[in-house]
Amino acid sequence: MKIRRWVNALGVLLLGASVSVASATQTNIADGVSLKPDVSITLKTGIGEEGMYFQGVGGKIDGRINPEIKVPEGAVVQLTLINGDGAMHDVAIPDLHVKSDGVVGRDSSSVFVFRANEAGQFDYFCTIPGHRAAGMEGTLVIGETEASDLTGTLDDISRDPADVPAAIGDRDPKTVSVAMKTVEKQARLADGTSYRYWTFDGQVPGPLLRVREGDTVDLTLSNAEDSTMIHSVDFHAVTGPGGGAAVLQVPPGSEKSLSFKAIKPGLYVYHCATPMVAHHIANGMYGMILVEPEGGLPPVDHEFYVMQGEIYTTQAYGQHGEQSFDVRKLLDEKPEYYVFNGSVGALTDKHPLTAKVGETVRIYFGVGGPNATSSFHVIGEMFDKAYEWGGTSSAPAEHIQTISVPPGGATIVDFELEVPGKYVLVDHALSRMERGLAGFLKVEGEDAPEIYNPGGG
User: Fold this and answer.
1) 399 is in an annotated binding site
2) Which of 81, 185, 217, 449 has the CA that lies 20 to 30 A from 113?
3) Is 154 left (phi over 0), alpha (psi -120 to 50) or beta?
4) Domain residues of the chain, as ranges?
5) DSSP strand pairing (353-356 vs 76-82)
6) 428 annotated to a ligand binding site
7) pLDDT, tens digit, for every residue of 375-410?
8) Among candidates 131, 132, 100, which has minimal Cα distance to 25?
9) Which cofactor does it need (predicted)?
């Protein structure tokens, strides 16, 4: 196969006293092949009692050993090979004249793109001497499926914005136990489109944690056995090195613990802080913790939890099939998707916010990022109160149209509902709506023509 271009990307971050280097990823692009694949396939190498093998990652082949891979005839296919065992491997489809580069070292990867022009069945296998005989072979079938069929039945990882713990109110400080689990899973990114998310507790954002100023939090972080990465958590509400991440780097199948005292009230972001940190955040590893002030916050009728994030895929926005992460777009800060609560349609089709005329609404809003600042706005409403930067110790600003929230930042906004209808949550950098960033607040109740009269007069 002739190679037109290759990209080598390294991420380096200093954490404590050690330096970690993210895996190198080399991408080979065959001459004449579009850079916007229709189908993405990921295989991970392994060695076990059954010998050597390829294991499917994501979509219908997730977890399958030497899976039969089906793609549509004429599709542009991106195949990613991940080294899961440390030995040297590659993958080739000789009848199609395509082959990956060798991957050496655990978590290294190689990507190649080709067009599936010829219908039929084709062997794929590792060409390293002895590896095919040891079990590393499977079948590629071209022409028996549609690209939109490759995602299978997908989980919805988007968190319902109504998933908010009850207010704490007026109580004395105490010790609060919190258990969180990091989970990697293939899930719906948009209709007909999937992505392998990295999550806290299997959803994006992670759970909204709620404690009181002065509480001691006993936190246990576990990492699922089938995870491919070490994960961690950095709480912006923690006073201590790395926000706790310095001691909470958890390998797959393990757990670690930390105790901290919530000494300052406010709404704080937490996120994974394992190198490359931005990669872990972009894959969905962010959430918030509310540290209520003594006596609690003023009561409202409804509380909602909304976070904004970015997803960086190799394929263009709107492509169907399994999408793969693109490190170059991350470093260039050019996401394909902007999302509320993890996915396109999370707050429009899946979990719209609902309330009634005369009720008061509070939105806990944060930006996981990792890169873009949000200009948070609800079209057709004003924020009666806005706790800037998530702080609760100062008096809130009043009658605010749009509030700026940086990556890793938060705000709390309160407003009363006077007029029924559908209100749209946006980032007022409005081109981002075209890349998935919108939510609905549906308000029921009697019309109020003295405030808003569509007919005029």
Assistant:
1) no
2) 185
3) beta
4) 3-149, 154-457
5) unpaired
6) yes
7) 999 999 999 999 999 999 999 999 999 999 999 999
8) 100
9) Cu(+); Cu(2+)
Structure token digits, residue 220:
């246990």
Measured CA to CA, the distance from residue 338 to residue 282 in angstroms comes to 10
The pLDDT tens digits for 88-107 are 999 999 999 999 999 999 88
285 annotated as belonging to a binding site for a ligand:
yes
pLDDT digits (tens, 9 = 90+) for 214-240: 999 999 999 999 999 999 999 999 999
| Superfamily per CATH, domain 154-457 | Cupredoxins -  blue copper proteins (2.60.40.420)
For residue 272, say whether it is annotated as part of any ligand binding site: yes
Answer for the pair 343, 435: CB distance below 8 angstroms, yes or no.
no
Cα torsion 299, 437, 150, 133: sign: negative
302 assigned ligand-binding residue: no
| pTM for this predicted structure | 0.73
Architecture of domain 3-149: Sandwich (2.60)
Three-state DSSP class for 60?
A: helix
Q: Which of 186, 283, 183 is closest to 224 using CA atoms? A: 183
Asked whether residue 382 is marked as a ligand-binding residue, the answer is: no
CB 184 within 8 A of CB 196: yes
Cα R_g (the chain), whole angstroms: 24
Instruction: For residues 439 and 6, give the distance between their C-alpha atoms in angstroms, rounded to a whole number.
Output: 39
